[in-house]
Amino acid sequence: MESFFSFLEKRVDDCSSLLCIGLDPHVADLEQPTAASALKFSLNIIKQTAPYAAAYKPNAAFFEQFGSRGWSVLKQVITAIQEESQRLGSLIPVILDAKRGDIASTAEAYAKSTFEQLGAHCITLSPYLGKDSIDPFLTNQEKGVFLLCKTSNPGSGDLQDLHLEGGDLLYERVARLARQWNTKNNIGLVVGATQPEALARVRALAPELWFLAPGVGAQGGDLEIALKAGLRRDGKGMLLPISRGISRAANPALAAAELRDQILSIRYQFGR
Fold this sequence. Notes:
The chain has 272 residues and is α/β, with parallel strands linked by helices. The chain has one domain: TIM Barrel, CATH 3.20.20.70. Helices cover 47% and strands 14% of the residues. The protein has an 8-stranded parallel sheet. The radius of gyration is 17 Å and the shape is globular.
């Protein structure tokens, strides 16, 4: 039976890309501070970049800020990605960046909202309430999750770098648990591209898992260093989310194509 990551790998092969395009309609980037402008912004990015996208990652917060209308727009954006998938003949996965994390009954409602109502294929989750808080998202193996492991923000070390009894750092324990829990091939890890040492350490602990590695570009992460630290031996296993570097470019299609080609070039240099 297919799983979320088998779908993702097919898309990666189809478009020769590890580029995950973030859809973050910052109010400052919109024609007007409205949900309608957020929709127009997002649809333009999708139309221009679909051939180069291994996945899309809409950030729920940038749509929720517009209230109920923003939630409706988010669903329209996901539908537009599905339509592009049909046009291209290749499923482009949608990763909802929502960072949910709650008790099991609440998690079940979040899972229904994400997968059944919005139509997303994957979601980012906090693992710190334990396995029962993520189980409702794992029921259907065709739907996936990326668990927050070592995040790209400067304050991530306040908790994620804590030393545990037995020698692990907290983020390393998350990586070990993710491997144990990944019985349906639908769990990956968020490991920031701003943290190359952590990328290398988590890759050693979880050699087969997919990483979502934000932080290249606006947050200061170096693309080549991140890829060297985080790629699997097969040259896959890593999605690079880029948002502002594409949406704020004069030509988003060209920016996406150049990023896709730059990633490919680096992979070839590493023999992957």
